[in-house]
Amino acid sequence: MVVQSVRFKHTNVIHWKPLTAVDFFDRWAVDEIIVLDVSRNKKQRNKFYQVVEELSQKCFVPLTVGGWIDSVNEIRKLLRLGGDKVVINTEAVRRPTLIAECAQVFGSQCIVVSIDARMKEDGTCEVYIDRGQEATGLDPVGWAREVQKLGAGEIFLNCIERDGFRQGYELGLLQQVTAAVDIPVIAMGGVFSWQHLVDGITLGGAEAVAAANIFHYTEHSTKKAKDYLRQAGIDVR
Q1: Among the record's GO biological process terms, what is one (predicted)?
Q2: Angle formed at CA 66 by CA 15 and CA 32, multiple of 5 degrees
């Protein structure tokens, strides 16, 4: 199922079948689709494999998949099922050498490292893993530099406090991370207006901008988003 989230907590079901959402996205001329298994355990993992395979047969844009990825073999399986790229998060922190191993086997262009950051009371940020439940003590900027060195091809940056809160990206964090690395950074978390997408690129320095909740409703199409970005002087496909 496709779920809506607020600060990584699932609030309601948007679609019972992910294929329904992908049908909309294909019609809306989306550039890329990112599908994450956000289940709290791996009991339904075989269903996720089935979803990836079915999506790949209907999806005519790059398909990036993630969630519960902990080995080269797991990535190989997801790619064989039709994924084009994979997103690694928790296991990348617990075993950073996995990033290098995967980049060597599949190429850096295939490996996206997701960084979930949470704001602390002193105004600094900390990397969290295990679906936003476990603090790591890592600084997002320093961790971003490290994953680049290890061979990641992209960074998927999400601010937990912004997720579902409709206040736009955490631009301060986004600016720091994009300034620290040379690889593309995809901004995620908090989009409620097309201007937030513009801000992520022009103010945050992101190479790409992603959103979830705003696109769960048919009146909010990526075509409208792209038109707005073009009007703002941003080159989009």
Answers
A1: L-histidine biosynthetic process
A2: 70
